[in-house]
Amino acid sequence: MAGGERLNIYADWNPWHGCTKISPGCKYCYVYRQDEMYGSTLASSLCRKTGAFALPLMRRRDGSYKIPPGKIVFTCFTSDFLLEDADPWRPDCWRMMRQRSDCWFYFFTKRIHRLADCLPPDWGEGYDNVLIGCTVENQDRADYRLPIFLDLPIKHRSIIASPLLERLDLSPYLDDRIEEVATGGESGVEARPCDYDWILDLRRQCVEKEIPFRFHQTGAYFIKDGRMYRVRRRYQLSQARKANIDYRIGDYFLPDKVARQVYGRQEMAGIQQMKIELP
Predict the structure, then answer these.
(1) What is the rounded CA–CA span in Å between residue 15 and residue 107?
(2) Are residues 72 and 63 in contact, defined by beta-carbon separation less than 8 angstroms?
(3) pLDDT tens for residues 208-245?
(4) How many folded domains does the chain comprise?
(5) How far is it, in rounded angstroms, from Cα 146 to Cα 136?
(6) What is residue 257's predicted lDDT score, i.e. its pLDDT?
(7) pTM for this one?
C-alpha cells in the first residue's frame, strides 16, 4: 500500500492547544518547540480553545463532514486530552466522539490518573470508537501509570513508550487488555538518546505476550551497536520503518485487532516479519 494511501485515512483534531509539563518526558516537549519556531506570542503552558474545537461536526458546503467517515482522528496532539485546564470543554468533545461513531478517535495522555474523574456519564466500559494511549517514558512512570490504566473501564488501550528514556520492563502489564505498544525516541536538538537495544527488548516482551508492537520513530539521537547516530527529523520515521520490526501491525499502522474491528478487512492485519537494517 502506498504511503499516500496510508496518510489519507488520518485526520487531526486539536480542540485546544497548550499544556503544562508534569514528568521527565515533557522536558523537551514538541509543542513548546513548535510554538517557539512559529513565533507564538502566547505561552505554551497556556491552554486555549482552538478554532477547530467542533471540527468533527463541521460540514462542507455540500453538507458532508469535513472529517469524512472512516477516518482515524488523532485527537488533542498539541495538548493533553485530560489536562485540568480543559475540564469545562471536555464533555462537548466526548459528545462529538460519541456522535461520530463512524470515525475512530485516538488520544494519549500522561494524566491517566485523571481519567476516572473525566469520563462522560454514558461511558460504561468505554466507547467502541475511542482508543486511549497511556504514555510512559521511564520505569518510574510505567510503574505508576500502568496499574491505574489497566484498572480503568477502557475498551481499547495502547501503551506509548515515548520518548523512550531508558530500558523498560513492561512485561507485568502486558496482557490481552493491551492492544498495542508503540515506542520511539525523542526529537529536537536537545533530545536525549534512545538505544536500539531498549527498542528490541520491548519488542521481545511484546512478542512473548503476543501484543502488537510498533517502532514509530528513532528520535534525533539514536544508539545502535554502541554507536551514536544523529538522525535528521525528516528521516526519523522512515528509519524506524526501515528496521521492519513491527509485530502484528497492519498496513495502516494499527494493531491487528483494531484494524479488523474498524475496517472489517482481515487483509489490513498482515503480519510483518523482523528485519533489522538501521544504519
Answers:
(1) 12
(2) no
(3) 999 999 999 999 999 999 999 999 999 999 999 999 99
(4) 1
(5) 8
(6) 66
(7) 0.89
